Amino acid sequence: MFGLANPDRFMRVTRPLVGPLWVIAAVLLAVGSVWAFRVPEDALQGDTVRILFIHVPAASLGLAVYASLGISCLFYLIFRHSLADAAARAAVLPGAAFTGLALITGALWGQPMWGTWWVWDARLTSMLVLFLLYIAYAVLRGAFDDEGRGARAASVLGLVGLINLPIVKFSVDWWNTLHQPASLLRAGGTSLDPAYLWPLLVMMTAWLLLFLAVWLTAIRTEVVRRRVLAIRARRAREAQG
Amino acid sequence: MSAALLLLRREMALSWNGGGGPLLACGFLLSLAVIVPLGAGPRLDQLASLAPGLVWLALSLASLLTLERLFERDFEDGTLDLLALGPLPDEGVVVLKALAHWLTIGLPLAAMTLPVGISLGLTPAQLPLLALTAAVGALAFSVTGALGAALAIGARKGGLLIAVIVLPLFLPPVIFGAGALVAQADGRSPGPALALLCACALVAVVIGVLAGAAGLRGSRT
Questions:
Q1: Over the stretch A9-51, which tens digit does the pLDDT of each residue have?
Q2: Does B196 touch chain A (CB under 8 A)?
Q3: Contact, A154 vs A140, CB < 8 A?
Q4: Total domains, chain A
Q5: I want to staple B134 with a disulfide (CB 3.0 to 4.6 A). Which of A76, A188, B113, B204 is the partner?
Q6: How confident is the model over A187-231, as pLDDT tens digits?
Q7: Alpha-helical segments (H) within B18-103
Q8: Statement: residue A111 has pLDDT above 90
Q9: Is the residue at A68 inside a domain?
C-alpha cells in the first residue's frame, strides 16, 4: 500500500484498472436500475419503495467516502504523501454529491410517507452536518494561495470531521428518531426481504464501483495536473534564467 | 509556568482593552436580540418558545465574530513566530488563547444572555440554568473557534471561511444547551442534556487544542 504512494507507481498500477471499473459500474448500474423497477410494490409504501435503491447506496457511500477522505487526511498529516492529499481532494465532490443525493431522495420519499419533506431528527441532522463538513473541507482546501498550506489545514479539518461518522451511523439507535433504525447491517442479521435485498446489494456494489472509478480518475487527473504545473514552473524558470 | 501566565495575561489584556473588548461582543449580542422580536412579533408567550434557540444563535454568532482575528493579527505581525521560538508548545499557545477568549469574551457574553433571555420571555426561574449552559457552551465555542481560526491563518477570505468551518462543529453544544432549557421548560429534568453539554465541551477542548496546534504548525512550514 505504501509503495503506491509513489505517483509513478500509482499511475502504472491504476492505469489498467480505471477502464474496467467504469464498464463494470455502468453494467451493474443498468442491471440494478432495471431490477429495481421489477421488484413487487411494498405493502405499505407502494411504488415509493423504489427510492430505497438510490437512497440507501447514496447515503452509505456518503459515509464511506467521508471515511476514505478522513483516512487520506490522516495519511497526509503523518507521512506527507502528496498523493494522499490528492486522494482526499478527489473524494470531496463525489462524497458531497452522494450525501446531497441521499438528502434529496430522502425528502422526496418523506413527503408522501411521513407527510413532510424534512424533520429535524438525529439521522437527518447529522447527515446534513456531514454535507456541511464536505463543504467546509472544500472551501478551506481552496482558500489559500499556497497549495501546501491549504492541504495541511484542510486535512486537519477532514480528520476532525471523522467524529461525525459514528454519530450518523448510530443516531438511529441512540435517539428515538422518525428515520427507521438500521435494517441491513444490524445485530441478528438483515430484516430485509430477499426480493429487495438482492437488487439493493447490486445497486450498492454498482455505486461503490462507480465511486472508485470516479475517485481513481480524479486522482490520476490531479497527478497529471501537478506534473503540468511543475513543467510550467520549470519552463518559466528556464525562460527567466 | 511563568511563560504561560505571561501569555495568558497578554491575551487577556489585549482582548479586554483592544477595540472595545467584551463590550463589542455584548453589543452585538444585544443588537441581534433586538432584531428577533421586531421580526417575529413582540408576543412574549410566542417568543418564549423560541427563546432558547435564539439565545444560542446569538451566543454562537457573537463568539464566532470575535474569534475571527484570534490568530490572524499575531500571524501578520510575527508574534506567532516568536511564540513558536518560546518555551510553550503549540498546544499551550492554543489553549491559553482560547482560555483568554473565554474569560474575557465568553463569560461576559454568557452573562449578557440573561437580560436577553428575560427580554425574550424566559422566566427568572430559568435564568440560573441559562447562565450555566451559556458559560459551558461559550467555552466549547471558544476552543472550537480557536481551532477554526488556527486552520484559517493566512487564508484569502477570513471571516466567512471560519464561519463555514466552525458552525457545523458548534451544533452539538447548541443541541444540548438549548435542549437543557427546553427540558426544564417542559418540566423534565435538564440533567441529561446538561451532562451531554459538558461532555461536548470537554471533547471540544481536547480536539480543539490538538487540532488547533496542528493548524499552527501547518501555518509555519
A1: 888 888 899 999 999 999 999 998 888 888 777 767 777 778 8
A2: no
A3: yes
A4: 1
A5: B113
A6: 666 677 777 788 888 999 999 999 999 999 999 999 999 899 999
A7: 21-40, 44-67, 72-76, 79-85, 90-101
A8: no
A9: yes
Phi then psi for A42, rounded to 5 degrees?
A: -75, 145
Q: What does the block give as the cell for B117?
A: 433571555
Query: Is residue A131 domain-resident?
Result: yes
Q: Quick check: is A11 in a domain? A: no
Q: How many whole angstroms separate alpha carbon B151 and alpha carbon B165?
A: 9
Q: Which helix (H) or strand (E) holds B12?
A: helix B2-17
- The three cell numbers of residue A18 are 480505471
Domain region containing B28: 2-220
Nearest neighbour of A143 by CB, restricted to B156, B167, B215 = B156
Q: How many domains does chain B have?
A: 1
Shortest distance, CA B176 to any CA of chain A (angstroms): 12
ipTM, 2 decimals? Answer: 0.82
Cα torsion angle, B154, B157, B158, B162, sign:
negative
> Where in the sequence is the domain holding A161, given as residue range(s)?
48-173+193-240
| B153 chain-A contacts, CB cut-off 8 A | 153
C-alpha distance from B22 to closest chain A C-alpha (Å): 28
Residue A28 lies in a domain: no
The pLDDT confidence band at residue A185, using thresholds 50, 70 and 90, is low
Cα–Cα distance for residue pair A114/B220, rounded to 1 Å: 52
CA distance A156 to chain B (A): 6
**Which residue(s) pair with A42 in the sheet?**
A46
Across the range B73-85, mean pLDDT stands at: 86
